From TrEMBL:
This is Aldehyde dehydrogenase. Residues 34-240 form the Aldehyde dehydrogenase domain. InterPro entries: Ald_DH/histidinol_DH, Ald_DH_N, Aldehyde_DH_dom. It comes from Micromonospora arborensis. It comes from the Bacteria. Pfam families: Aldedh (PF00171). One of its GO terms (molecular function) is oxidoreductase activity. Keywords: Oxidoreductase. The keyword Oxidoreductase applies.
């Protein structure tokens, strides 16, 4: 009997809650596995999926969003060994689980910290409330592959945004495996979309896309590329988060900055009753 040939796994894109191959049919080899090489068309498809998910996700209760993020933590905990087998250190997987839980806890508390009633000189109530920005394009950091990815996705979606994430081209397996976790975590399709491949191909298309409201350049280490992306983003006045510093400590307390940076503030005036 001839020796069995193992089936090589093909890691696909994650768009709209599904796992399509790239429309270009291209892939590249990482750790003896095929990984889809996303095209600009795939990036546009991901934006369409993210936009379609905005209304339902932003309209969900903060409590519900927190429960779904906590479910993602549970599912990630259950697949710890799989991530370790992919080369992700065990302490990083544990930190990523804790990061999901940390942001889940903020889901129904952020509005109380970041919003509130404002004192005004008149017979009115003046209330400021945070609202999601919309569709966010995110460039994930190369390392730490899993913790860095969770640290840019979780703060964006916990407040009601949807994301299109360009995963690190050198560390895509953790990203697509995280997509498999999210697909079984009750997260509505389109809230998180993950593209693998060359960021020089997909991210400029996202930066210039008129239906993307903000772009997070955390994982961009090429200063010339970062500048070009900022110029493209200015076409429709996207909010831009600048690249993280090279010595950024992803294991440190993340604080609220990433959540509040992707929020809009709505202020409402209402007359007081007699």
């Amino acid at each position: 009997m001839s020796e069995r040939v193992a089936v090589r796994k093909t890691y696909k894109l994650f768009i709209g809650g599904k796992f399509p191959r790239s429309e270009s049919g291209r892939s590249y080899l990482v750790q003896s596995s095929n990984v889809s090489l996303a095209s600009r068309k795939d990036a546009r498809d991901a934006v369409v999926a993210a936009r379609a998910a905005v209304k339902g996700w932003a309209g969900a209760t903060a409590y519900n969003r927190g429960q779904i993020l906590y479910r993602a933590a549970e599912m990630l905990e259950g697949r710890r060994a799989q991530f370790v087998a992919l080369g992700v250190p065990g302490d990083e997987v544990d930190a990523a689980v804790d990061r999901w839980v940390w942001y889940a806890g903020w889901a129904d508390k952020l509005a109380q910290v970041y919003g509130g009633a404002n004192p005004v000189a008149g017979p009115y109530f003046n209330i400021s409330a945070p609202e999601p920005t919309g569709v966010i394009a995110v460039v994930a950091p190369e390392r730490p592959a899993l913790l860095g990815l969770v640290s840019v996705i979780a703060p964006a979606i916990v407040t009601g945004n949807t994301v299109v994430v360009a995963a690190s081209p050198s560390e895509p397996l953790a990203a697509v495996t995280l997509a498999e976790v999210l697909a079984t975590s009750d997260l509505p399709g389109g809230v998180v979309n993950i593209l693998t491949g060359a960021i020089t191909e997909t991210v400029p298309a996202l930066a210039a896309h008129m239906d993307v409201n903000a772009i997070d350049l955390t994982g961009v280490i090429d200063t010339a590329l970062a500048t070009d992306l900022e110029v493209k983003a200015a076409e429709n006045l996207k909010r831009v988060l600048r690249p993280a510093s090279a010595d950024h400590d992803w294991f440190a307390d993340p604080g609220l900055a990433r959540m509040t940076a992707l929020l809009e503030t709505k202020t409402v005036w209402h007359p007081k009753g007699v």
